[in-house]
């Protein structure tokens, strides 16, 4: 007997008060190339007190016209992890993408992710990360240096967008209560099972000095938390370090960006991360 393969592609968007971002995010999803296939989009709206849910509902006719399913989950409890798990429970696709509500996908992205994930072995995929031009000069300077780091240039970072196939999603159960869900998922896959497709997605950094310090502090704490709770996943990190010669070269090429990046890093080390989730922008 032939068993039908689930080729449905589900996109899960955790959203908390995203009225300024969810519309452009959904517009970009609707603009995907035909290679994206049939999509199911689930917006897990958690503890929203703005117009996020009304905006999502307004997109229903456009998704229906394309033959796609759009669902908006109303969730009273706040929290991204709970929203991700609720979205997972509602999703029917074997392939799943987890998309931040402030991310804009290029038209070819979902089709390329679908093609990359069409395998029976566990796979993780993301697009080519492009930092959205910031309003503040300090964030622009930080982002310029950050994008030159080996970890970022090495690809498959997955900040703001990551996707897995059915075999990949089977590697863990519910999303755990951790700070960095993207790090947790990425480290479930060794480097040879992580793919970066050419199509881009546009991801905003938080604006300003204090925002950068706050978010960077939480990001570092999130990575340490994963290493502490799941030490076996550390072997999958495979980060390439920044050597002294390369560091000096980057500092000479981008002196202002280097100074901002180092300043943020030193401030992060000065104080531990506070409790609670911090938005990435």
From TrEMBL:
SUPFAM superfamilies: Nucleotide-diphospho-sugar transferases. Its main location: membrane. It comes from the Bacteria. One of its GO terms (molecular function) is glycosyltransferase activity. Gene3D superfamilies: Spore Coat Polysaccharide Biosynthesis Protein SpsA, Chain A. InterPro entries: Glyco_trans_2-like (IPR001173), Nucleotide-diphossugar_trans (IPR029044). One of its GO terms (cellular component) is plasma membrane. The keyword Iron does not apply. It is found in: Cell membrane. This is Glycosyltransferase 2-like domain-containing protein. It comes from Neptunicoccus cionae.
């Amino acid at each position: 007997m032939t068993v039908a393969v689930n080729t449905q592609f589900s996109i899960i968007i955790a959203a908390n008060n995203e009225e300024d971002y969810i519309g452009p995010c959904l517009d970009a999803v609707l603009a995907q190339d035909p290679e994206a296939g049939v999509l199911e989009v689930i917006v897990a709206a958690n503890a929203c007190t703005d117009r996020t849910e009304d905006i999502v509902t307004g997109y229903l006719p456009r998704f229906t016209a394309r033959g796609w399913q759009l669902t908006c989950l109303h969730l009273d409890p706040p929290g991204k992890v709970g929203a991700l798990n609720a979205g997972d429970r509602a999703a029917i696709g074997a392939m799943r993408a987890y998309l931040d509500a402030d991310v804009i996908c290029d038209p070819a992205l979902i089709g390329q992710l679908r093609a990359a994930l069409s395998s029976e072995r566990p796979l993780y995929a993301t697009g080519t990360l492009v930092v959205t031009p910031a309003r503040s000069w300090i964030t622009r300077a930080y982002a310029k240096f950050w994008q030159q780091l080996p970890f970022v240039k090495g690809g498959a970072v997955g900040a703001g967008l990551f996707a897995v196939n059915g075999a990949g999603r089977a590697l863990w159960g519910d999303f755990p209560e951790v700070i960095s869900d993207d790090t947790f998922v990425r480290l479930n896959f060794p480097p040879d099972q992580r793919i970066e497709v050419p199509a881009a997605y546009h991801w905003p950094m938080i604006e300003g000095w204090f925002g950068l310090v706050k978010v960077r502090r939480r990001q570092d704490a999130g990575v340490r938390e994963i290493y502490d709770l799941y030490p076996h996943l550390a072997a999958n990190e495979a980060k390439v370090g920044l050597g002294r010669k390369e560091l000096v070269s980057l500092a000479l090429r981008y002196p202002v960006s280097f100074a901002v990046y180092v300043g943020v890093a030193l401030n992060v080390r000065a104080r531990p991360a506070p409790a609670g989730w911090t938005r990435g922008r």
